Task: structure prediction
Amino acid sequence: MGGTSTKKKGRESASRKSRRRFLWLGVAAVGVVAVGLLVVSGGGTDLEPTSNIGLEPAPEIALPNFEGETVRISDFEGQGLVVNYWASWCLPCLVELPGFEEVYQERKGEVAFLGINLADDPASALSVAAGAGITYPLAVDVDGSSYKAFGGLAMPTTVFINSDGYVVEVFSGPLKSSELEARIESYFES
Result:
C-alpha cells in the first residue's frame, strides 16, 4: 500500500507542477497581450521630439550580418536610422516585413534601415528575408543582447534613432507602412 500512496503523491506533485507551468504561461500570455494593447492604444512615446534633451544615446551595437561581416549602429552615423527586430518564428514580423521594404525603397538615401534577425535559425531567416524581398542591410542577434540593450518588449520591435545618434522611440509591435512613414516624417524630416 505504501508504494501506491507514494506513486499517487508523485503523480499529484507532477500534476501541480504542470498546473503551475500552465498558470505561468497564462500570466506571460496576459502580459504579452497587455503590451500589445498598450502599443495599439498609442501607449508609445509622443511623436515629434523637438531636441535630444531627455533622449538616450543609442547603445553601440556591433553584430554580424549573414555573410559574417560586422555591422555597427555607428556605421549609420549622421543619418536617421530605422532598426527593425524580426524573426521567422514571429508572425507579426512576417506581416510587416514587405511594408518595411516598400518604405525603404521609397526613402532610400533619406533614411537608413537595418533589419536585425533575433534568435533565429539562419536558413529560415534568409528564406523569409528573400521571400519578403528585403534589400536593406541585415544583421543577426543570436543571443538577444542588442534587443535587450534597446529595451525591446515584444516582437517585432522597431527602434528609431535620429541623425545625432539618440533613440527617439522604441516601438514594440507591428507597424503598418503608413505608420512607419508617419514616424519617419515626424522624426527625420525637418
